[in-house]
Amino acid sequence: MATINIEFKAQAKDIVFLEKKLLTLDPKYIGEDNQVDTYFNVTAGRLKLREGNIENSLIFYERVNTAGAKQSDILLYQHNPDKILKDILVKVNGVKVVVDKKRRIYFIDNVKFHFDLVEGLGTFIEVEAIDKNGDIGIDKLKEQCDFYATFFGINPSDYIAFSYSDLIAEKKF
Known about the structure:
Shape: globular
Order of helices and strands: EHEEEEHEEEHH
CATH topology: Hypothetical Protein Pfu-838710-001
CATH architecture: Beta Barrel
CATH superfamily: Hypothetical Protein Pfu-838710-001
Low-confidence stretches: none
Helix content: 10-25%
Number of strands: 8
Number of domains: 1
Oligomer: single chain
Number of helices: 4
Strand content: 35-45%
Structural class: alpha+beta
């Protein structure tokens, strides 16, 4: 399935406070996922295999490394956990980096919220305004991200331009 997201990631010095703030909006709680994202060497974009107790997906995405809300073009294949799939991807592409995190997941309508504790990096909040069918449009997605950035009190210096994989691979954080 191809989707378009407008999303931001920010350092969260007090992730508990931010999560409690979100709870005042009565979001749908999906759960806490222990995720291992294995990133593979590819010539364009990013390819990762997500293995979790909630989410299991093969994800290809393209996104520029800029701070603040940005567009991601995503191809997502959801699957049941499968060791052979990972073995094939490792054999064909080689592993670039592995990201291990605990992620608490919520939704309000089409907006997904992640409260992340990333091994070796710290705590972060991610907000993804998701358009699965092309019905919402980029302007509305940007408006949603801007609303939640203001709601959470995200300062420009809190935004993280890079993916967790980049931060781990290049020690940019």
